[in-house]
C-alpha cells in the first residue's frame, strides 16, 4: 500500500523515481479505507532531506499512511525555505485538537546544549506531554529520544569523550513485536556527542531495553505497550549522510575522526555502502503494523473527546 502525501511535495517525485509507492491526496480519496494518520515533527536542519528519508521507510509498508508534517512555532528554520514550511508544514496549534495513530519525533543538532537551553524546549515539552493522550505510538529518534526520555522519565543525557559516529553492530536484548524478524546482530548508524546511560534506563520500571551495542550503547528502548519508543541512532539515514556530516565538519576545521565501520577499508575516499537498509525498513514496518495499526482505534474521535474531557 502507498504512503499518502501532498501532490506537490518535492519528496513525492524523488520517491516515485525510486519505485516507492506514493499516492497523492486525490487518488487516495477514491480508496475506501482509513489510512493511518502519522505526524512527523521534523527538527532536523535539512527538512526536505529528512522528509524523504522517513517517507521512504513509511512507504515500504502494506498499510496506507497519511502524513502530516509538523514544525516548531517558536523556531525559525535556517536551512529550509519559508515557502516550503508554509506549504507543507503545520504548527502544534493547528493539530493539537486532533488525534493521531502514530508520531515520529526526529533528532536535532542541539544535543550539546542542556535541554532547557534549547530555544523551543517549552513548546517541545507541551508536544511530548500531548503525545501521551493523543497518539497511539510515538517513535523518538536520536536527540528526540534523549528529549523524550528526559521529559517523560527524568533520564539525563551525558556528554561523550568522543563523538559516537559510525555504523555499529547491535544485538537484540528482548524479543517483542517491535524487534520481530531482527537479525541476531544488525547494523545501524549513530551520530551524536551525547548518550543515555544504560543503567539509568534499566532503573525505570516503565521501560524495556530492546537492543544495545557494545560500542554505541543503548539503541532501542520502549514501554511494554510500545506507546513510547526511543531509538538513539539514525536508521533513516541515507548511505551518504554520515559522509556528508564528516565532510561538513572537516570543512569547518573541527577535530573529527572519520565515522567508524562506515567507509570501505576505513578510507574516506571510497564511497560508503548502505548496510542497514533492511533493518531500517523492518523497524519501521514493525512499528507501523504491530505498534500502530494492530492497536489503534478505528475511530480516533473517541480519543479526541476523552482528551478534551481531561482538559
UniProtKB/TrEMBL annotation:
**Source species, domain of life:** Bacteria
- As recorded in UniProt, coiled-coil segments are none
Family the UniProt entry places it in? Belongs to the MetA family.
Q: Which organism is it from?
A: Alicyclobacillus vulcanalis
Which lineage? Bacteria, Bacillati, Bacillota, Bacilli, Bacillales
Positions contributing to substrate binding:
163, 191, 248
Reaction(s) the record says it catalyses: L-homoserine + acetyl-CoA = O-acetyl-L-homoserine + CoA
By its UniProt entry, which InterPro entries does this protein fall under? Class_I_gatase-like, HST_MetA, MetA_family
What name does the UniProt record give this protein?
A: Homoserine O-acetyltransferase
One biological-process term from Gene Ontology? Answer: L-methionine biosynthetic process from homoserine via O-succinyl-L-homoserine and cystathionine
The enzyme's first-digit EC class, named in words, is transferase
List localization entries: Cytoplasm
**Keywords for the protein's UniProt record, in alphabetical order:** Acyltransferase, Amino-acid biosynthesis, Cytoplasm, Methionine biosynthesis, Transferase
Site (Important for substrate specificity) found at 191
Q: What does this protein do?
A: Transfers an acetyl group from acetyl-CoA to L-homoserine, forming acetyl-L-homoserine.
Q: Name one GO molecular function term.
A: homoserine O-succinyltransferase activity
Kindly list the residues the record flags as site (Important for acyl-CoA specificity): 111
Its GO CC terms are: cytoplasm
Instruction: Enumerate the Gene3D superfamilies for this protein.
Output: 3.40.50.880
Pathway(s) where this gene product acts: Amino-acid biosynthesis; L-methionine biosynthesis via de novo pathway; O-acetyl-L-homoserine from L-homoserine: step 1/1
| EC number in record | 2.3.1.31
Q: Report the active site residues.
A: 142 (acyl-thioester intermediate), 234 (proton acceptor), 236
Main subcellular location: cytoplasm
Amino acid at each position: 500500500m502507498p504512503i499518502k502525501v501532498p501532490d506537490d511535495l518535492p519528496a513525492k517525485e524523488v520517491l516515485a523515481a525510486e519505485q516507492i509507492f506514493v499516492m497523492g491526496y486525490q487518488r487516495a480519496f477514491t480508496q475506501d479505507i482509513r489510512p493511518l494518520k502519522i505526524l512527523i515533527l521534523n527538527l532536523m536542519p535539512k527538512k526536505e532531506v529528512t522528509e524523504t528519508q522517513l517517507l521512504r521507510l513509511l512507504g515500504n509498508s502494506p498499510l496506507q499512511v497519511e502524513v502530516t508534517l509538523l514544525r516548531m512555532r517558536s523556531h525559525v528554520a535556517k536551512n529550509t525555505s519559508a515557502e516550503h514550511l508554509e506549504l507543507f508544514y503545520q504548527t502544534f496549534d493547528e493539530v493539537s485538537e486532533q488525534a493521531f495513530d502514530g508520531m515520529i519525533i526526529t533528532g536535532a543538532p542541539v544535543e550539546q546544549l542542556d535541554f532547557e537551553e534549547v530555544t523551543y524546549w517549552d513548546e517541545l515539552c507541551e508536544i511530548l506531554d500531548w503525545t501521551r493522550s493523543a497518539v497511539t505510538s510515538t517513535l523518538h529518534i536520536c536527540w528526540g529520544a534523549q528529549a523524550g526520555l528526559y521529559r517523560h522519565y527524568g533520564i539525563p543525557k551525558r556528554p561523550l569523550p568522543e563523538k559516537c559516529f559510525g555504523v555499529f553492530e547491535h544485538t537484540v536484548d528482548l524479543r517483542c513485536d517491535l524487534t520481530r524478524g531482527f537479525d541476531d546482530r544488525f547494523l545501524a548508524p549513530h551520530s551524536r556527542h551525547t548518550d543515555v546511560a544504560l543503567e539509568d534506563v534499566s532503573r525505570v520500571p516503565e521501560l524495556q531495553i530492546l537492543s544495545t551495542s557494545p560500542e554505541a550503547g543503548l539503541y532501542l528502548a520502549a514501554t511494554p505497550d510500545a506507546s513510547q519508543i526511543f531509538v538513539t541512532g539514525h536508521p533513516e539515514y541515507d548511505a551518504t549522510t554520515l559522509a556528508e556530516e564528516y565532510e561538513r565538519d572537516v570543512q569547518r576545521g573541527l577535530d573529527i575522526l572519520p565515522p567508524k565501520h562506515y567507509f570501505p577499508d576505513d578510507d574516506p575516499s571510497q564511497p560508503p555502502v548502505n548496510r542497514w537498509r533492511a533493518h531500517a525498513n523492518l523497524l519501521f514496518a514493525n512499528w507501523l503494523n504491530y505498534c500502530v495499526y494492530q492497536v489503534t482505534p478505528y475511530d480516533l474521535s473517541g480519543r479526541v473527546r476523552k482528551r478534551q474531557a481531561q482538559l
